[in-house]
Design brief:
Layout (H helix, E strand, L loop, with lengths): L2 E2 L6 H15 L4 E10 L2 E11 L13 E13 L2 E9 L1 H7 L12
Parallel strand pairs: 1-5
Antiparallel strand pairs: 2-3, 3-4, 4-5
Length: 109
Amino acid sequence: NAHDAGGGAGGRAQGRKIRDHVRSAFPDSRYTVEHVIADGEWLCVRLEFTGTQHGELFGWPATGRRATWKEMRYCRIVDGMTVEHHAVSDNAGMLEQLGHLTPPARSRW
């Protein structure tokens, strides 16, 4: 059973459900691996995601807009299985690009 450090307790089944939901929202999605670091049981991957939102995404309606954002994923792998997962993603940047969030006002400083 995998542990998602983001608070999810659903393990692999929950991970697959989220992955399938994102793929449904972004049917043309593409991940590009930018960097990989491995150290013992730990694996770190820096990714770039690009896709067009053609479906609902966690309650946000489809916009038909394209977005690109970065993600970092850290996993602990034991006996060939991911047993711990940490992810950092630029969700605010993605939601701004899709038109779901208005960027904050910029300071003149």
